[in-house]
Amino acid sequence: MEFYRFKDAITKDCGLSFSVADTPPPPNQTNGHQSTTMAGRGSVRASGNFNANQDAEILYKAMKGLGTDEDSIMKLLTSRSNSQRQQIKAAYKTLHGKDLVGDLQGELGGKFETLVVALMTPPILYDVTSLRNAIKGAGTDEKVLIEILSSRTAQQIKDITAAYRQEFNKNLEEDVTGDTSGHFRRLLVILLQASRQQGVQEGNIEADAQTLFSAGEKKFGTDEEQFITILGNRSTEHLKRVFAAYMKLAGYEMEESIQRETSGGLRDLLLAVVKCARSVPAYFAETLYYSMKGAGTDDQTLIRVMVSRSEVDMLDIRADYRRLFAKSLHSAIQGDTSGDYRKALLLLCGGNDA
Q: Are the CB atoms for 107 and 76 separated by under 8 Å?
């Protein structure tokens, strides 16, 4: 089954070869938090002059005979939306009686292959597969659980839960609880409910800030329960107001207190929730920065974020990356990767903000 081939490619170690889409036109401003629809904020857009059969033929020719034309594959796939890629996949099967993803995997290798297979996977299935791989086997990849469950919208979380059951005949919440423990597990379960309160409760802003202060900085030890309840259940709009009130009350940013008062997986998850409440694109800019910082590259994270945000908010991520780290995302990718893998990632990035 195609899904398993995707799963194998995601877990393989690799090396890439690609060519990218044009830089998109300047978009409208959005505030970038979870509940915002990011229409037009992606670096990858649907092609206006789209013909699935024609594209299927281009890909077939790129893989036919001796050698593979990686550049053509890369340029085409990064200049089509995911929905269009699914139509190309269907056309390819109709025209050639073969599975496009299987053929791509047979022709490509390394990180480039992983990236191309990720691009060919519908977004919800990509999230579901990433979560499944993070949970199954020995050990848990907490980073993936944290990233996906803290950054996706309520509707996306509901779709992920349903797709997980359909794909694996398993319950995502049960799998998560079976693989995690303690306060970390409790907050993950709350996030999986996808039932944050709506709007801002004016009367609770000061009370929430006070509760968080009393649960952490003000006492010996930490009442993690209060952090989990408030940060896991309030709306992002409400939390922004609470963070401002907390700063006035405690003299610290919420993130500073979480760093001091908690540890391990819970700390990382609470920080991700707070950062996503403030700005999802800024959270991903930071995630990308740390995937390339220091010796070695966390290619799994780099690929996952570049693919999953390419049609959502990559333009905002690029702007936040420039603002936060005084360099462009484009130059960071250029300096940290190589070959076709680098070319493909730069196409997904879509432009240099140097």
A: no
